[in-house]
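To whoever picks this up:

The parser on our side crashed when reading a file containing two proteins. I've narrowed it down to the boundary between the first structure block and the second sequence. Both blocks are reproduced below exactly, byte for byte. First block:
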Amino acid sequence: MALRISLVGVFTGAVLGGVGRAAVAVIHLSEPAQGIAAVVLSAATVGILIGALAGATGAPLLGAVVGAALTAVVYLASLPIVLFFHFLGTLTAPPLVEVIAVGALAGGIGGAADRMAARRRSSGSGRDVT
C-alpha cells in the first residue's frame, strides 16, 4: 500500500490545529503579559505541525488517532515547562483532554476534508470554468 499524502488534509488540519492550539493558549493565560505573543505563537506552531501531520493521513479516523497521539506526546513532553509557568502565575495548565480534543478534531476534520475532496474529484462534480 503506497503512502499518499493529502494536501487538502494537510492544509485543513494545519489551519484547525494552529487556531485550536492558539485558542487553548489564550484561554489558559492568567493575564495579559509582554510574552503573550511568544506563547500563543509557539502553541499555534505546534498545532500547525500536529494538524498537518494528522491531516496528511487522508482518513478521518486515522487522522483523529494520529492527532490525539501526537498531541499527547507533545503535551507530556512540554508539561514541565507549562507547570513552571503555572508556578510563576503566568498561565494555568490546560487539561489533557482539552488539548487532545483539539489534536483529534484537527486530524479528523483534515482527513474528512481530504475524503470529501477525493469523492468530488472521482465523481467529476468539480466546477469547470469555461
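<<boundary where parser fails>>
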Amino acid sequence: MNLSPRIVSVEISKSAYKRLKYLSESSLPQFEFLNLFSRALGERDRSAGSKTSNFAAKTLTAVAIGAETFNAIQALGLIVDDDVMVDVVKARQDAQAGRLLDYISTHAPVLGLSLPPRLDRYCATIIDLWQPTMINPNHFPEMLAKVDEAMEDHSIGQLFFDTHATFNRLSAADERPENKLLMLGLALVVRLNGQLFGAMPEEQLLFDIKRLIGLHAVDLANSGESAKCGRAALILEVLWHDGFLQAGIDLARMYDDLLSPLRQSSSYARLVMDEVLDHYMRNPTGSFTDPDSATLMFAFHAHLQVKGILEDAGNGQQMLRFTVDLLKGLMCAVSQKIEGASLAAISFLDPGKADPSDDHAVYYVAARRVVSQYPKAEAYCIATNELALTAHSRCHG
C-alpha cells in the first residue's frame, strides 16, 4: 500500500473548477450570486481580449486554493483533503472561504454587483458545498442544501417519501445505493429528526433510513477503499451524533485501523469510545437492541486503552488517563456481568492470578507491566484492586 499523501495535482484542480461550474449553473439557490459573479468576471475577461475558456471558474479555484494562477496550484504541493485529519480540513476550508470573501468583496462592486448579506457566511457555504481540494467530494453539503430547499418550498414530504421508497427498493433487490442517495438520506436524517409531516409515522420511516444507511456505511468501511472508508466515516459520525451508539463503535473502529493510515487517529477513536461508554453507563438496558453489542463495546474500549498503554509514550499523566479509563470500562463490564470481563479485570489488577496460557490474560498482564513503571497509575491500580477485594468480601462474607 502506498502511504504517501496525494497532492492537489493538475487533474484534481481541473475537477475542482469543473465541479464549481456545475454547482454555479445548478438550481441550488446558494450559487445564484456566484453564477452572476462568474458571468460578469468572464465577460470582463472576454472584453479585455482574452480567449481563455473557463476563466472565471479557474480564477476562483486558484483564489480559493491560494495560488497566484490556476496553473500554479500544483506547485503549492498541498495534500488533498482526503488524506489529512478532519481538523486540518476545517482550518483549510476556513482559509479558503476567507480568500474567496476577499476576492469577491474587492471585485463585485467593480463589476456592478451588490454583495449578498453576510458575505462571510455565504463564502463559507460555497466552500462547504464545493470542497475544492477534495478528490472524492462526498455530496453531503450539496444534499443538505437540497433538503433545505425542499423544506422551504414545502416539497419535503414528497422528497422524504420518494427517498424512503428508493432505499427500500434497493434493499429488497440487495443493491447498494449510489453516493448521492446515501448523502441525501443522511441529509434527511439530520434535517428531519424530530420533525412531523402531519399524521404519517415519520419516526419509523426515518429510523428505516437510518438503519439502511448504517448498514451500507459498514459495507463501505469494510471495503478497504480510501474513498469509501472516508464516506463511511462521515455517515457514522452523523449517526453517532444522532444517538446511535453502534455507529459510535463503528466510527471508532474506523479511526483505529480502517481509514487511510494518513487519517487514522487512535486518540480520536478513544475519545469516541469513552463517550459511547459514558452513554451506556447512563442507560445500560436501553443502549443496545443486540446484547452482543455491549460485549463488543467493552472489548473494543479496553483494546484502545491497552493499546495506548503498550505504546508507552513516556507521559505519566497520559498513562494515568489510560489506566483510569481502562478500569472504568472493565469494572462497569464486571458489574454488568459481561462475559470475560472478570478475567480481564483480574489479569490487569492482579497479574499473579492470570492464566499464562490465555492470550487475552497475557495481553492485560503486559499492559500492567508498563503501568507499573508510572507511580500514579500504579497506585491507582492498587487502590482499585483493594476496593474490588473489599466489595467482593462484603458480597460473599
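After patching the parser it read the second block fine. The mean pLDDT is 87. The longest helix spans residues 86-107.
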